[in-house]
Design a protein that fits this description.
- This protein is an alpha/beta fold and 313 residues long.
- The protein folds into 3 domains: 61 residues, no CATH class; 157 residues, Rossmann fold, CATH 3.40.50.300; 74 residues, Ubiquitin-like (UB roll), CATH 3.10.20.30.
- It contains 10 helices and 11 strands.
- The chain has a 6-stranded mixed β-sheet with strand order 2-3-1-4-5-6, sandwiched between helices. Strands 8-7-11-9-10 form a 5-stranded mixed β-sheet.
- Helix 1 packs antiparallel against helix 2 and helix 2 packs antiparallel against helix 3.
- It starts with 6 loop residues before the first helix and ends with a strand.
Length: 313
């Protein structure tokens, strides 16, 4: 009897071949076992996978492995880490390619993405880290996905509005997250706006889910509304930019300090130097629009986006 191995199994098998650590081999073998077709023709293959899995689990972790970072955890960089969720062929990888220098594999067949792929996107002068993740669907979901989503600053759900099953796919993702007590996506993205009827279909979806998250319809292929997508992420991360200036000189507008909304002048001073926060007497607040030109503020004054601070110690 032929095995009829699925694309999901073949992807897991390739993941196993490329695995470099004990944890990566275990994750790949578990995925192989979960996706291998269950019938008489694969009984020997199933037994072989179980044998390999048992052997790897018996291996002693290398010294220091208990503190090693799992392969699927991407170190946070920039203003925040955004996990891209979505069903197969929704265009997540193409979106990352369009907005960053990362080059995840883009193909017209499902389950192209097998491992997390990070890329740095910029909203004006603010770096935001996007992480392309394997597809999330009823047929299969990587067992480590919940940990990645929980670790990220927020998640975005990317769908193809022209897919006849888009409503079921969207509802599945929301329910899957809720069942695992994971935060819902802060942004629902309808990709492929360049295709006929995509905007009309997404408008109906946005009406259903617009009260649960923000919505943006875009095209990663043509670049349509990518600027709206970037701004929506920046606003969802609740980041504010603070620039600094030396008394008597022009402000340094090349690289802002990034703080969370609600943080204060004292927090900004601490980012510049610990001594500034401890010895700070007051600060002068300037704005790019000159709306608060040289206003004296105390250390507990909350900062706003694009504030320019001159510290006095």
């Amino acid at each position: 009897m032929p095995a009829n191995l699925t694309p999901e199994f073949l992807a897991a098998e390739e993941q196993y071949r490329q695995a470099q650590t004990r944890e990566e081999r275990i994750a790949a073998l578990e995925r192989m076992l979960a996706t291998v077709p269950k019938h008489k023709g694969t009984e020997k293959l199933q037994a072989d996978i179980k044998r390999k899995l048992a052997q790897v689990r018996k291996e002693s972790p290398k010294r220091g492995a208990a503190h090693a970072t799992p392969f699927y955890v991407i170190k946070k960089e920039g203003a925040g880490q955004v996990a891209l969720l979505g069903p197969p062929n929704s265009g997540k990888s193409q979106l990352v390619c369009a907005l960053t220098h990362a080059r995840p594999q883009v193909a017209p067949y499902p389950f192209t993405t097998r491992l997390p792929t990070p890329g740095m996107m910029y909203f004006e002068d603010v770096p935001i880290q996007l992480v392309d993740l394997p597809p999330l669907c009823a047929e299969y979901a990587e067992p480590w996905l919940p940990q990645v989503i929980r670790y990220a600053s927020l998640s975005v759900l990317v769908v193809d509005p022209t897919d006849p099953a888009v409503l079921e796919q969207t509802e599945f993702v929301f329910e899957w997250l809720e069942q695992r007590r994971l935060p819902g996506p802060r942004l629902l993205v309808g990709n492929k706006a360049d295709l006929a009827e995509a905007e009309q279909s997404f408008a109906a979806l946005a009406e259903l889910y617009g009260t649960r998250c923000r919505t943006v319809c875009l095209s990663a292929l043509t670049g349509r509304n990518l600027d709206r997508f970037a701004r929506a992420l920046f606003e969802a991360l609740e980041v504010v930019r603070v620039y600094t200036k030396v008394p008597g000189k022009k402000p340094d507008l090349t690289a802002p300090y990034l703080l969370r909304r609600g943080q204060t002048v004292e927090d900004a001073a601490r980012l510049v130097h610990q001594d500034f926060a401890e010895r700070l007497k007051f600060a002068r607040l300037y704005r790019l629009d000159a709306g608060r030109d040289g206003l004296m503020v105390e250390r507990h004054h909350p900062v706003e986006d694009k504030d320019i601070l001159e510290f006095h110690i």
